[in-house]
Design a protein that fits this description.
The complex is a heterodimer of chains A (247) and B (137).
Chain A lengths: L4 E8 L9 E8 L7 H12 L18 E4 L2 E4 L13 E4 L6 E3 L2 E2 L2 H9 L21 H7 L10 H5 L1 H5 L6 H11 L7 H8 L13 H5 L6 H17 L8
Parallel strand pairs in A: 1-5
Antiparallel strand pairs in A: 1-2, 3-4, 3-5, 6-7
Helix pairs in contact in A: 6-9
Chain B lengths: L32 H11 L1 H18 L12 H23 L1 H4 L7 H27 L1
The chains are: A alpha+beta (247), B mainly alpha (137).
Amino acid sequence: MAEKRITVRATRFDPAKDKAPRLQSYDIPFADESMVVLDALNHIKAHVDGSLSYRWSCRMGICGSCGMMINGIPKLTCNAFLRDYWPRSITVEPLNNFPIVRDLVIDMEDFMHKLKSIKPWIIRKQEYPLGAGEHRQTMDQIDEFRQFSECINCMLCYAACPVYGLNNEFLGPAATALARRYDLDSRDQGIKERLPVLANSEGVWECSFVGECSVVCPKGVDPAKAIQQTKLDTTMRFVLPYGNREE
Amino acid sequence: MKALGGAEAADSTHPPPRVYKPEMPRGWWLRQRHYFLYIIREFTALPMALWLLWLLYEIQRASNGPKGYYPPSSPAFIVFSIIVLAFALYHTYTFLSLAGVIIHIKGVPSRLIVLSQFAAWLVASAVIAAVLIGFAR
């Protein structure tokens, strides 16, 4: 029986030589039903063309490094099985809406800047010494923010967001979801430090609720929900007389 | 490549750019059903705004009383109104469905929140219809 094969087309771009990215086709063996797109890229790099560049690390949907466009949809390549595409070919491109550094590698500087701007850590008005004990939380308090804490910063939501594609100034889905994660944390007291970033014109109000960010999230986070709830929160804080109370 | 356009031309005097900055293709909203439905949802606001502007004009015309007032009844206007009604229903459906995402009340399932919005819509529509029909008699 003839060996099963699959065609993988991958974006190639060498900034030293190319004016624009191009697609290169590779015909590779599809030997194992458990093969994912990342395995296919690794096969190409190991056996066909060692110059192919892409990011990856954990191979198990945790690190968020291997996000790419697969047949036009942002996905983690470690979680996209070849069997779901075969016998069709697979087109692998860098994540949409980001500058391309080389081949399938994007420049994530803008996202890192946005992530830092919402201060994704627990802010306390006054830090207590460690000896004073832990900050206790009930399961209900954890459930308030748990789903937003699942974000792995893979940036698939930014690649799926046409609002970010049209206006790179937009704070975007993951950064807002993570801001919400800390704003809802009973241990956090930093909402007023995050509000200037969240509530400005390039913050949550730029979102027109396409909703695709929540569709493509590989961890079940709902950034669209985080953004809309933040809109409601910021409005309430603005219109209600007690909205700006100290918390 | 369709998805990646807008290359900056690199000539012999300038080195090629360090990164390639792709631009959104004009037809991005045709690439996916979800994007298409989103654009339709956003677009519905435009004909609805036009229809409401017309309504304001009609109210102004009717302010002098029923004498000399003739509501428009051309087939073209009726067709336009039916299309706008369909758009308004679609817009309302999408808007109220999103209430479950936006409103968060502890212990209340989001499904119930959405259902309550639709119920409130039906009640409000029935009250407005009753008032309008009552005045027309």
